[in-house]
Design a protein that fits this description.
- This protein is of the alpha/beta class.
- The chain contains 19 helices and 27 strands.
- The protein has an eight-stranded antiparallel beta sheet with strand order 3-2-4-1-10-9-11-15, with helices on one face. Strands 5-6-7-8-12-13-14 form a seven-stranded antiparallel beta sheet.
- Strand 16 (about 270-275) and strand 17 form a beta hairpin.
- Helix 3 (about 105-110) packs parallel to helix 4, helix 7 runs parallel beside helix 13 and helix 14 (about 425-450) packs parallel to helix 19.
- The structure holds 5-amino-5-deoxy-1-O-phosphono-D-mannitol (M6R).
- 5-amino-5-deoxy-1-O-phosphono-D-mannitol (M6R) binds near residues 301 and 349.
- The site of 5-amino-5-deoxy-1-O-phosphono-D-mannitol (M6R) has 16 residues, from helix 9 and helix 17.
Length: about 600
């Protein structure tokens, strides 16, 4: 979590750092701070609880003079509460340091170096700063290498030394860092969005390497005895700053909901050849789809929910076991996987720590891994055997929307290819499936166009502290994401339930006016779902029913009915996802909450 940025070059460092932090804020927003190397070479640290906006205002008051190098941090608190003292940067003697990650052995280091009486914060990061100061004898590379040997855990560090004016050092293990020499100078950040205003070229800082930024160059060093230079692969990003701006929308989330049809097309269309899904340009061989006898999908949060939809689609079609596991469980579970299991890893950011650990575990079990990732060059993308990039562009709102749709699109295409290769679909059936998938795109547009009418129903939801999402089969899988979205940004307690399971306890919670969002788009269980809806209605629930346009239901069944276009049953998730996202968006707005940056959350979960 946490956003970090470092800069050195000809421009005003304060502005560059503060602007960069504003774009990184979705990674954490408990506090923010910058350290500037001033013209007299002194280091000026300014930090404050709250968002980057508050830091900017504070800097305008207190920072006098100009500076051309510095480091900045926006925090998602792990160790130590949300206080000014715990905000980064941390200063210790000649060292000023910011950190993204967790130093697991900070207690042991505190004792080993006798730091107990020196610490002014409760953070693991300050311990790293103090240890570094203790071992620093004037050679930054030697000291950082020693620090890296001492600390256990995950880190992206940016560091300044009092006696190295104009230089910014960095190192990483697990936590992401990207860097570039740009037209504005040398820059490093936890995330590309901070670099994009200045360049479209960057490199991923390799783990267990040290980076030194000067106004004229960026050097990467190995940790060997002579600090050999390492020349990383330069990558080009294919989106520009517009993609990371609100562009007239009040929130990133609404903008990203609107971007879904386009993102779907960008993800699907280049991968259709002769009407069939084709991954040869992605370098994914058909053999991995034919040689496996099981699929195991591993992911977290929304990405895991995309996996749940894929499971409900794949298993009945492919007739092989398809399992979905939450990555934080999978990694400690001794999963039943082997070289005949195709492990699909799903991650928007490609940096989620549990998902990354799951990927590594899958490798150690001999499984082939295929990652569905949005961020190019991210750790999961680099470490998996094969990667299928989704083309959603940058997703800035903490609540995932377009990433979910394109993950689904990728999974649907994979399912189709597997069905074709394994003889479950003829070429014609596979081509029809792809046509149906593309037909889901205008269906999403239809639902986006209905956003105002969806907004109208929100009053019924925000009056209640609880809400339930119910459905069967694929509809149940969609419900999971609907409930997560609502919880995440409206703070309404929401639960997704398989409609047939309600009677086994949960229906006790259904009383007068409790909102139940019922999804009934699957024909083979339609009548059963309708019966379950009647049961909650009979107990006073306020029912918001989501069905296909042509479904016939009697008027007394629901208080509100939202109709989606008549796409094939397997593809209803796409328009339904839009509806569920809009419900959550307007609920958050209706409660005057921070839609894009909900409390306690961060976009990229890079700590356990
Ligand atoms: O970057 P990832 O896809 O690996 O992230 C996984 C989850 O943290 C993420 O989907 C999270 O659940 C979303 N904020 C939900 O909207």
């Amino acid at each position: 979590m946490c956003g970090i940025i470092g800069y050195t070059g000809p421009l005003d460092a304060k502005d560059i750092l503060l602007n960069g932090l504003a774009t990184l804020e979705y990674r954490g927003y408990d506090s923010a701070g910058i350290a500037l190397c001033m013209e007299d070479s002194s280091i000026c640290v300014t930090k404050k609880v709250g968002k980057v906006k508050a830091l900017k205002e504070y800097c305008d008051q207190v920072v006098k003079g100009s500076s051309h190098s510095g480091i900045g941090h926006t925090r998602w608190a792990t160790h130590g509460g949300v206080t000014d003292a715990n905000a980064h940067p941390h200063q210790a003697g000649r060292v000023t340091l910011i950190h993204n990650g967790i130093i697991e052995n900070y207690h042991a280091l505190t004792e080993q170096f006798g730091l107990q009486d020196e610490l002014v914060s409760q953070t693991d990061s300050e311990v790293a700063a103090r240890v570094l100061d203790r071992i620093y004898t004037g050679d930054p590379l030697m000291a950082i290498r020693e620090l890296m040997r001492l600390v256990e855990g995950s880190y992206g560090f940016c560091i300044m030394f009092d006696d190295q004016p104009g230089a910014v050092f960095a190192a990483r293990s697990v936590s992401p860092l990207v860097a570039s020499y740009t037209r504005a100078g040398a820059m490093i950040a936890s995330d590309l969005t901070a670099l994009i205003p200045y360049t479209n070229q960057y490199f991923v800082v390799p783990e267990q390497h040290i980076v030194k930024l000067t106004p004229y160059k960026v050097h990467v060093y190995e940790l060997d005895d002579t600090f050999s230079k390492f020349y990383p692969e330069i990558m080009t990003v294919n989106w520009n700053m517009d993609a990371a701006m609100k562009n007239g929308f009040p929130h990133f989330m609404l903008k990203e909901i609107h971007e879904q049809p386009d993102a779907m097309k960008k993800t699907i269309l280049p991968r259709i050849s002769k009407g069939l899904p084709d991954f040869s340009d992605d370098g994914i061989p058909d053999s991995i789809f034919m040689d496996c006898n099981a699929v195991h999908i591993v992911a977290c949060g929304t990405a895991m929910h995309a996996g749940m939809v894929a499971r409900a689609l794949m298993e009945p079609l492919l007739r092989i076991p398809v399992t979905v596991t939450i990555a934080s469980e999978f990694r400690y579970e001794q999963p039943l996987i082997d070289e005949k299991t195709l492990v699909m890893i799903i991650s928007q950011s490609g940096e989620t720590i549990d998902t990354l650990a799951a990927l590594r575990l899958a490798h150690s079990c001999g499984s082939k891994t295929l990652a569905i990732v949005n961020v190019k060059g991210s750790t999961i993308a680099r470490e998996s055997d094969y990667v299928l990039y989704t083309h959603a562009g940058p997703e800035i709102a903490v609540a995932s929307t377009k990433a979910y749709s394109v993950q689904l699109a990728a999974l649907y295409m994979l399912c189709c290819r597997m069905a074709f290769l394994r003889g479950k679909y003829t070429a014609q059936q596979a081509a029809d499936f792809m046509t149906d998938l593309l037909d889901a795109v205008p269906a999403m547009e239809v639902m986006i166009a209905q956003q105002e009418s969806i907004r109208q129903i929100i009053t019924h939801i925000i009056q209640s502290p609880d809400a339930f999402f119910i459905g069967r089969g694929l509809d149940y899988a969609f419900s999971l994401e609907g409930a997560l979205k609502l919880k995440e940004i409206s703070y309404i307690h929401a639960e997704a339930y398989a409609a047939g399971e309600l009677k086994h306890g949960t229906i006790a919670l259904i009383s007068d006016q409790v909102p139940v969002i019922a999804i009934a788009t699957q024909q083979h269980v339609f009548a059963k779902t309708i019966s379950n809806i009647r049961e909650v209605k009979a107990r006073g629930a306020f029912v918001i029913l989501l069905t296909k346009e042509s479904s016939v239901v009697d008027d007394t069944l629901a208080d509100i009915r939202i109709r989606i276009p008549d796409v094939d049953d397997r593809f209803t998730v796409f328009p339904i996802a839009v509806v569920l996202q809009l419900i959550a968006y307007y609920a958050s707005l209706g409660k005057n909450l921070d839609v894009d940056q909900p409390r306690n959350l961060a976009k990229s979960v890079t700590v356990e």
